[in-house]
Amino acid sequence: MTQRVITNEDADSTIEQFFRRPTQVRGIAKFEKILDAAHTLIAEHRSPDISLYDVAKAAGVATGSVYHFFPSIESVFIALVQRYDELFADLVRDIDPQDSSAGWQDLLVQHTERSREFINSSPPALMLIIGPLRTWQSRLVDTVGDAQISKAMMESYQRHFILPEQPQPESILHYTIRMLEAFWELSYQQHGFVTDDISRETNRAMIAYLSLYWPKYLPPV
Q1: What does pTM read for this prediction?
Q2: CA–CA gap between residue 108 and residue 210 (Å, rounded)
Q3: CATH number belonging to domain 1-17+74-221
Q4: What class, spelled out in words, does domain 20-70 have in CATH?
Q5: pLDDT tens digits, residue range 13-48?
């Protein structure tokens, strides 16, 4: 298996293609305020038919301030995808097994169910990550985000289990996330959200794939 883990340099070069991320405190606050406004507008309209002017008005900032960070409304959507992926990473990183006898399979289900709760509660995340607002450009950024999520999952596992070093855990976990997105995208197309049935099938597929490389019982830390 050919493996390559996405680095921070990869992430930076990908993101720099689409929008300018501020480094100063005031700029960061304005940047986040713009994303908050875009998130709310998508949730309200359930449509891509919003403009940078609409976002600026909702955020209470000058349109020029929005253009300073984002050359187009599509770049705002891409920045939201990155934000959602960071939230997913934070969600799974902090998860611990619900009981001391839980295996890695149980922890995986906790990871996916926590993530499903979040995406089903956020129509903009549904639309941008697995729905009609997904574009080739946003997929590139989402690939970087998925690598961050896989790293967070690995950190969660490593607190409790000794993972096989080969294949690289971070790499195969990244592959399982892409499997998850394919299942969830189908569920969105059919139902408008990620259903219980699709979630169960997703977990089975992810566990079956990881079981090709991980034993049923991983040694505890």
Answers
A1: 0.90
A2: 10
A3: 1.10.357.10
A4: mainly alpha
A5: 667 788 988 999 999 999 999 999 999 999 998 877
